[in-house]
Design a protein that fits this description.
Elements: E1 8-9, H1 11-17, E2 21-25, H2 31-40, E3 45-51, H3 57-62, E4 68-80, E5 95-98, H4 104-115, H5 130-143, E6 152-159, E7 162-172, E8 177-185, H6 194-208, E9 213-219, H7 223-231, E10 235-246, E11 254-260, H8 264-274, H9 279-282, H10 284-289, H11 299-312, E12 319-328, E13 338-346, E14 352-360, E15 366-376
Parallel strand pairs: 2-3, 8-9
Antiparallel strand pairs: 1-2, 3-10, 4-9, 4-10, 5-6, 6-7, 7-8, 11-13, 12-15, 13-14, 14-15
Helix pairs in contact: 4-5
Length: about 375
């Protein structure tokens, strides 16, 4: 497994959204390894980027029980600064300078104005409130005028003394690469080639500093900026699909944990009640011959235990079971102790509660992953 494909905790995003968020960029989807890491790290949302076209990624992760959505497609354009000759600015009244901490307040106000209606991959996920997404752009831009940073820079363009556009960029001097990360133009000054001048200015600056390659990226639907990039010499290089895995294995209003053990007698009584007399549930020898450690419990026996807890303990009497999505990752063995963990999370302004349940064996391996929607009918 390559370093890029390792799922890594994102502290900044986790703090912003109040969820445990991790990220990974992968050349291919190693779903079993990824699912194992998501469960082991109790991840709430895993943001995964894969080469565009691997559309089976969502279904492959869903087969393991993890709710997955396709959030966006990101396109990357590159430019060879060594051979490219940046064109002259169209707007000669612009004054460019490197942003400093004294520009922070004005720059943040401009970012808020510029990105208030912008749609990113975060907006595809109902777990991310829109106001916190905008706050993320403000934090992002603020981080690019940190004077202690040695790998990022922000240029601002002034017109009549006021900042009307900005370009947040990062760079790697050792690799001789740079990237235009976040560009913005005040809506009142849009048009007239101002955005193009931002591109030309950053091209000229990085070329003068000896950088060899420049990269920019955006959501695939953002055609306007891509047209500008193409006119300014950039070429489409790659595209990545962004997937959000909404595991929700950490965030909770309440957590219930306990040991569960389904005895041979319980399994036999459930077999009689359900009519499922599969010998894998009732005969140790036949279960071992099939490759199991011993007889395995009925999957719905675990479901029945969840129903009992929901209806009699938490949330309690009157609770209606609206939906259950259960995935069996490993067998739950009869007569052996397992660990049950249920995380309850209520929807603001709603009577519904989501309960995410996991059952793990004595070795900490996930056996059951269940997503349940409940309605408090009282």
């Amino acid at each position: 497994m390559s370093e890029l494909s390792t799922l890594r905790h994102s502290a900044l995003e986790s703090e912003r959204f109040g969820l445990r968020i991790s990220r990974a960029e992968m050349d291919d989807l190693e779903e079993k390894r990824l699912v194992g890491q998501i469960i082991a790290d109790s991840v709430d949302v895993a943001i995964i980027r894969l080469p565009a076209g691997l559309r089976t990624a969502s279904s492959r992760l869903s087969r393991h029980g993890l709710p997955t959505l396709h959030a966006d497609t990101l396109v990357y354009y590159t430019l060879d600064l060594g051979t490219h000759v940046p064109r002259a600015l169209r707007n000669q009244d612009l004054a460019f300078s490197i942003a400093t901490i004294t520009d922070a307040a004005e720059l943040q106000a401009l970012v808020e104005t510029t990105f208030v209606g912008y749609t990113s991959h975060y907006h595809a996920n109902p777990n991310f409130p829109a106001e916190r997404i905008l706050a993320g752009y403000l934090e992002w831009a603020g981080g690019y005028i940190d004077t202690s940073s040695t790998d990022r820079i922000t240029w601002v363009a002034r017109r009549h003394g006021a900042i009307v556009a900005f370009a947040c960029c990062k760079f790697n001097e050792h690799a001789s690469t740079c990237e235009g990360v976040l560009y913005g133009v005040h809506p009142a000054h849009a048009g007239g080639g101002l955005y193009g001048d931002l591109i030309r200015h950053t091209q000229s600056e990085f070329k003068a500093r000896g950088f060899g390659k420049m990269e920019v990226s955006t959501q695939v639907w953002n055609y306007a900026v891509q047209k500008v990039w193409a006119r300014e010499g950039f070429v489409l290089a790659r595209a990545l699909d962004t997937f959000h895995v909404n595991a929700m294995l950490s965030a909770a209003d309440r957590i219930v944990e306990r040991e569960v053990l389904f005895s041979n007698d319980q399994v036999e009584r459930f077999a009689l009640a359900s009519g499922d007399t599969n010998p894998l549930h009732l005969d140790d020898a036949k279960a071992r011959a099939a490759g199991f450690e011993g007889r395995i419990t009925h999957g719905m026996l675990a479901g029945a235990e969840l129903s009992r807890i929901f209806g009699t303990e938490v949330p309690g009497a009157g609770t209606l079971y609206l939906r259950a999505n259960m995935t069996f990752l490993r067998p739950v063995l009869a007569g052996q102790a397992h660990r049950l963990r249920i995380l309850y999370r209520s929807s603001p302004g709603s009577r519904t509660t989501q309960a995410v349940a996991t059952i793990t064996d004595a070795h900490g391996r996930a056996c059951v992953l269940a997503y349940n929607d409940l309605l408090a009918n009282r």
